Sequence to fold (1264 residues):
Amino acid sequence: MLTPTLQAAIRPFRPFGNTPAISLTRDLPQGVDADVLLFECEDVRHILYTCHAEQDFPDRKLDVTACNADENVIARNALLLALILDGREAGSSEKMWNIFFHMYLDESDMKLLEAQAKKLVAVSEDLGQWHASSYGSTLRFGDAGTLSAVRSVWSQHVAAVDAKDSTEYKNRFESARGKSQAFKDRVWGTQGLAHTGTRSSAPLSFQMTGDMIASTERYWDTGFSNHHPPGTAVLPNPMFSVAMSDAIPLAFPSDPLLGFHLAAAHATLTQLSPLRLTGQASGEPAIFDAAQLQFRLWTDAFRRAAARVTVRYVSAHCFSFCHTLQYNIDTGETNAHWYRHEHGFQALELAGSEYGKQGETPRKFDVIDTSNFSDRHGALGVLISAGPLLKNKPSSSLYTKLVPPGLNSRSEAFDDILCGYTKALSLLLGLAPIEYWTNNTIESYSDDFVAVTLDGGSQTGKETHSQVAWKHDKCVAGSNPPPGKLLVKPEDLANLAYRAYLNMFEHENMLKMADDMESGSDLPFPNAHTKYHRGTLVALVKIICKSVRTDAEEVGRCLFGKLSTDQSRLLTFAHMPSFEFEMIESGLRTEEPVPSTDSTAGDSNAPFCKWKSLPTAVAVTLVIPPSRWKPIYGIALKRDMGLGGFALDGNLRSGGTNKHAWHSMYSDVQVAFGTVSTRGSRDDDGFTVLVDEDKNSWNGNSPLVVSFYASSWALRTDIPNTLVAVTLQHAAKNIREFRTAVNSAMPILSIYDTPLLDEEHVFISKHPPGQTSYFIVGGTLPPTGVEELAVSTPSPQAYFAANFDERTLHFLSLTGHIDITSDKGKQLLNDKVPITLHEASPFTINIVFGNSALVLPVHFPIPILKDLTKTRIARKSGYIELIAPFAEASTNRCLDSYVFPTIRSESGLPITLNIPHLSLDTLPILDVDNKDDLLFFTMLASCTLSNRERSLRNATFAGPAPTSDDSPLSPLPRVNFKESLFTMCMLSSGLQGGQTGLFALSKPKAGGIHMLVFVSAIRLDATAAGVVLDTAVLPFSREMLEGGEAGELKDFLLLLRTLECCTLTVDDDELRLWKQLLPAYVERCRTWEHTSACEYARPGAAVPLSLEDGGRVLCSCGRGRMPDGYVAVPEWDTASKFCTRAAIGLAYACPFVEEVVDPALPGIIASKNDAFWQRGPGRRPSGRPGGGKRGANSLAGLAGEACWSCGRTRANKPGGGQLKKCMRCLKARYCSVECQKDDWPTKHRFECIMAEENQGVVSYLGLE
Fold:
């Protein structure tokens, strides 16, 4: 494995996930077939929801490969999907819910489960029989081993039903449940507060926290998700009882309801809203009803889509499966000699019928969702394993979920994702973190706000994940053709790998370790293990060498030289033998033959010395008696290290009286419990070791069998005196917790050691048990050497070289080299025509000859700074080089408009990069008439500004008062855009000021109104933990206003004067940003298909079509495709012909770029900060313009009811009647919507304090 194998004495059973379902195809164009890979998917919620979320989209084929190491999970999921496929005659939605989610069943449910399990067992004797069955076209298995393991579980289900009435069966399950509860209470506390549940109720997490906690506790107390389970449901459910035992507790916080979108249970929805509950239930019962309703809708959607859906299962460690696929892609072979699981000696060999040369099973994927696999195994391991399987398409994404170390340090944690060099290593891997470069995401941080509020700012142990989507950087640039491979000097790559090595193994820093041991700190690795070993570094370098232009062998030589002299890491020298042979096996170092005999070996009569050939590395298998491993097991359980686990190292070291002590270590070990047998003679090359495994694992009494590859040179150094040992991994916590038990001196924490020639406990073979060759990492390495760099095509294409800081090794800039090969270009160079640079996009610089006589675009794989780019022009040699520094995500203006970028594919289809698609008509509609229930909406809209953006906005309003009627605008268009979004949200909901759904974007000095936005509804978007505005957009163009339909449109525009319309004043930059975003908002909810006549597909077209005033923005494919009765405005049938539907969502900063939550928030919420809440009425925050009271218009000194903007009272208000009230503070009064809009930007926004009945966290997060 690419990560240390953790020895977890407790391995909880995870029957379902604890985060809400997402659409797996959310970032893919509608109607395009999709291949998906899922890591460790606990249940089928994502698959079911995807079918539901896509029901209004053009049809697509969906092929999902689900890799999970637990065959019990796969068996559950496949059985449920089979029930769904069999239709309603097989069982109602309620019965399927009971079987899949409840811990106890009644007789009828048990009979249904038994019948289904027997049916599956009958058609699963082998892959051929299964794939020919009625299920085989939809449910498939990637290898015979997976099907066999799953069939065994189904058989156990049948046996459990037969034993359902036995006392032994019931007592065993009750004992397992008791152990689960005790384990939960010990690790999580008796309250069981799990912050992951807040995401399921988002964006109403604040309001629902109590009910969510009570729901989870109820499930753990009773085994049921509902309040009133049937009294006859008393039989332990085999779907749980087969997997659980005293040693395998139920994972916390397992709760069936957490996989659903539960905000709909609490929100006030319109009468005709999707997901609206018809009953009177509230609180916990409503949460259950909402989940059951969604389950029924999702299962029905899957059944309808089944003909277009394929779900493939592989029971294996995800790294094993990924590297086997990489090797399969390169060679067609189905066995890369990886073990199936972290524990055990079963090899993974994929089915030839599926993955052979004639197989049609996907090997590369449009979507790779790794869930939170990075938390346990490291993001670096995930990217080098799954990254090469990502299709080279702009829409393809590899998703990782990461738990940063704390809200206040998230931005600092970005580089730590990839061992301190995330920007550089991601560039070399060819992967771009799209949320980082856009500094933008559609997902809100509602769960973060709950976490910091409930915990007073503490994030210790709380799982608030942030998603990072990785895309091929060449695709993100949006260029055609894409940039070629990056040129990297071997010494630069070796230096960077060495620096990453130092960060990987910081725990071996002798000075830091001494400090940790002296202070008693658990740092740096409180879980007593690292996420990487030396093999991870080798794999990283190999994958990079496949991705860039470099000399792989020279990289290996330089890196090996650096590590050979490193003295900063305590165990560098001990790990050098393993590092060397892993480099040889990976093709990064030339293999030196090992002689079969050597006079220096000390004993050439050792059996393996008689082999005909001795490979660079051989397998050492050590058998450890129970008496030696059981004390470790006891301490792990006592100290709660049984869950996180601890890692083991294999060792060879000198023993006896050897004066020249030596020691070699091997961290890539494979472990199982059982008894060893052999085949063949020890002194024969074909000697084989076999293990009869004991499934009782740590709870049995079998020996612990540990196998690892060891260097042949090290093995033969001093054969008579060499000891073979297994030790605990060297980490501060291991030393403190286990040192007494192992009774070993520092730095060795040996569990067991014995002489190399101990034939009872030591077995030397060419390969470890179950394998026939060395495992292949990252497929095959291409021929070494740097390929020819010259470009001889008439249309020149650039190649790029990476430039690194010599001191820090951080990435500084890219050199783009372009050969001028055309006759025209050469002539212009010879004529010494002036050459200038123009920025076409954050990724593209146009080289412009003269007055655009020739324009050559240079597409960089990352955002760069044109203004700081240096130019080298070789007029005689005929090339141009651009040395361009990369842009910082939060500080460089070139990325201001890179918010929700949309690029044009080769076919002309618009491709969105970072905005999830959704079916608007399936989302719940909020009832805006009930303002009290919309409090959360203000929080969501207010928090779009990061702390930095909020400071910039405040500084703008702190400047001199505007001299005209225009509101002051920030110099940053992104800030102004978010301000406009906030206004749209507040006015369309009626939470602040008047209420209108009609908005006009206006440049008063440049043509007036440029765009209309009609808000039809505000919908819950639970997958983004937020809301979305369901809108129709009408961007005006000269063609539209002057063409044949102009008369019809102008009549409607004249009618608009009579309607309540909010005019949003924008400047040139903000208007351009809106135009850039419109294609993404339209594509996000597109239910129609682009036609062959689409304007985007025309030669030379762009997305959007134009950014110029009066230019056309959107294609005409979606124009007029609006639902009936979409908005209630006069002559809508006329206006709708010109409108396009768009899903406008809020935009939040990326937490890995900058701080998204103010650290002061918990204290302010807890105490309500008297100075803040009770500041004098009408007083503005210090430093803002016009401090003090506003005379007759102040909150305190209001003389009667008068308009706070113009001063009119009820008596002289045009038309008479009551003055309108600010719905936020309930104090300010206005005679018209116009007066309220005029007063807000420069005056009332600074003094509007939430009314007492509306106060709470929103008051702080609003625009105070």
In short: The chain is about 35% helix and 15% strand. The radius of gyration is 33 Å.
